[in-house]
Structures are given as structure tokens and as C-alpha cells.
Amino acid sequence: MSYWGQKLLLDPASPIQEEMILFHDHAMVLLLGIFSFVAFLGMKLILNKFSSRNMLEAQMLETIWTIIPALLLVWLAFPSLRLLYLLDEQSKADLFLKSTGHQWYWSYEIPSLESFDSYMISLKDLNLGDYSLLEVDNRVTLPYNVNTTVITTSADVLHAFTIPSVGMKMDSVPGRLNSMNMFLNWPGVYYGQCSEICGANHSFMPIVVEAVHVHDFFFESA
Known about the structure:
This protein is an alpha+beta fold and 222 residues long. The chain has helices at 15-47, 59-87, 214-221; strands at 95-102, 105-110, 114-118, 140-143, 148-154, 159-163, 168-172, 178-182, 188-194, 206-212. The longest helix is centred in the N-terminal third of the chain and has 33 residues, at 15-47.
């Protein structure tokens, strides 16, 4: 959950989000080094009053400034590709959750357990401490430390099933099923929203996932 004035990324609630934050830090270190070096050279060029009429070519310099950027790109590309394939990895699931986007609410189904619709709670019905435009009448309850495969589709137009703190964002496409693994690290309440403009009430499609102990999950679902 993000807060007003927050400077850092959300606390990771899944291994995927932890990997994303690590890659972000890795890329920022690289970009900060490049920016500092370019800024230093820029200042040197501005302040340097020397010139050389005999400096016509520099093969070694050209070789260096070709090889070093290539190595930096490789240093950035390999972790990026690793994370990209990790996002698409499909491990054995212990539980399945199907989400269907509608204009403008979500329908959920956990096979053999339950199915329900989830609508946003209007401002006049919020309780003290509730979050505006993020609370729903029916939360999705899932067990933590359990491999869950989330399958999403749409009943009308394009939607996007997104939970930032879990590192999940999938397009909900009519007539198509997209899936992604979700592994919640610990109990908590995780908020998300539809991230694809889907009409006039696009902003009123929140997603709320509550992670509980596996015993509590099956007790509530019974």
C-alpha cells in the first residue's frame, strides 16, 4: 500500500516483487554511474580552455568508448532477461483463482470452493480508516506460502488485473485466458486496481486480496 509522500517502492509481498526491486536497484546503480561520468566529462569540457590542432584521430579512445558501453548493456540485459523469464515461469500450483473483468467490477472463482462478484464500496458507505476508491464489498481471501495460479479474462472490454505489492499485472482480454503465478510471503491485505482504461468508471474497479493462514482459508471457505 502506497502512502502520500512515499519516496521508495512498495514493500514486496512476493518473491517476484523482491526480484523486481533488486533489478531496479541494480539498474539504478548502473545509470547513476553513467550519469556521474557523463556529467564529469561535461564539466571538464566546459571548464577546459585547452585545444589541440594535431588531435585528428584516436583509435584507442574510440575502441574504449565502443566496448565499455557494450559491456554495460550486457550487464543490464542479463538480469533483465532472467527476470523476464522468471515472470513467465509456470510452477506447479496448489490453488487456482480465476478473475473476470466486467464494466466495472470483478468476478472471482476458486474452483470447488466459491465464486462471487466484487464491487467497490462507495464513499458514503466507507468506515473510519477505510481507503477511498480501494475498498470492496467482497475481498479475495487466499492462503499465504501457497503456490497460486491466477487466471484472468474479460467479459466485455480490455481490463488489467494488477496488484503492485505482489508484482502482478496481467491483461484481461475477452476470449483469452492469461495466467501468472502468485506466492504471498506473509499475511496482510494487498490492494490493486484495473490498470487498463476500460470506460467511464475505470477508476472504480479496485482489487483487494487478503492473505491468511492456510487453515483459516479452508475454514472460511467451508
